[in-house]
Amino acid sequence: MTPRGVRLTITRKEFGDALRSRVVWAIVAVIAAVSSLSAALPLLVPEADVGAGPEAAIGGASQFAGLLVPIMTLIAAYLSVAGEREPGSLKVLLGLPPSRGEVIAGKFLGRGVAVAGGIAAGFAISGAVTAALYGTLPVAAFLATTALTVLLAVSFLGIAVGISAVTATRARAMTLAITAYLGLTLLWDLAPNGVHLLVTGRLPGAGVPAWFLLVRGLSPTGAYNALVQRTLLGDAGVAAATGGPAPAFLSPVVFLAVMVAWAAVPLAVGYLGFRRADLS
């Protein structure tokens, strides 16, 4: 069997495992429900201090996605390697044609296709609900936000598979996955706030320097939020925050590179560790 055929076989197996684990169905249900509720909130609670309209609905859905997609992706993939390594079934797999690199690639691709499909299906449902509620849907902004959400999942998928590849036990993989989620999603904002305090002597307020937005966007979730804001508001969001035009280092290309790096670097580190690991 050719290396491409081996990777395809592992990809199909991982895709099937993800479907059978019901994680993908949970992603579809959660994304669809939360995004649809976000779209309906201004109509259900008119006195709520949130914007109304399909663009605001997409923005609200992205805020929820920025919190939910990382943890769901980590759950879907943190045992992709470690879950087979601890009971010894991974040694059986590696006794067959696939190399360790092909195993990592197949697991990343298979879980990635499953997670991306779940996110796309969930957003498709919420898009239909948004269009029904408001009578219109900004298709370009909606598709761009959906694609960015898939890219956010890919970033955390690289982190999850990388973690799974370098850990020998399920418990350690779970610990590192939880740490990654807390550090990169919930606690990252503390870092730019701390840097701002050290540099300026005060916490950030209504107006912030442009470098603050860059530091905030160096996490996968921060880069995702920056890109969604640019998609929905253009340069106006950056201008409102900094009081001036967006500098080159706040270009969408920079934040796209950040998200790709969060997928590629942990995956490469995981592969290197897995390649040297003693599985006996």
Structure summarized in a few sentences:
By secondary structure, the chain is mainly α. The protein has helices at residues 3-20, 23-44, 54-77, 82-85, 89-94, 100-134, 139-166, 170-186, 190-200, 210-216, 220-233, 236-242, 252-276.
Evaluate the radius of gyration.
20 Å
Could you report the average pLDDT, rounded to the nearest whole number?
Answer: 86
| Main structural class | mainly alpha
Q: What is the CA–CA distance across the termini?
A: 26 Å
Strand content: under 5%
Unreliable segments (pLDDT under 50, ≥5 consecutive)?
none
Spell the H/E element sequence: HHHHHHHHHHHHH
Estimate the helix proportion, in percent. over 70%
Shape: globular
In DSSP terms (H or I, runs of 4 or more residues), the helix count works out at 13
Number of strands: 0
Largest sheet: none
Explain what the structure shows.
With 280 residues, the protein is mainly alpha-helical. The protein is built from 13 helices and no strands. It has helices at 3-20, 23-44, 54-77, 82-85, 89-94, 100-134, 139-166, 170-186, 190-200, 210-216, 220-233, 236-242, 252-276. The mean pLDDT is 86.
List keywords for this structure.
280 residues; mainly alpha
List the helices and strands and how they pair.
Elements: H1 3-20, H2 23-44, H3 54-77, H4 82-85, H5 89-94, H6 100-134, H7 139-166, H8 170-186, H9 190-200, H10 210-216, H11 220-233, H12 236-242, H13 252-276
Helix pairs in contact: 1-6, 2-3, 2-6, 3-6, 3-7, 3-8, 3-11, 6-7, 7-8, 7-11, 7-13, 9-10, 11-13
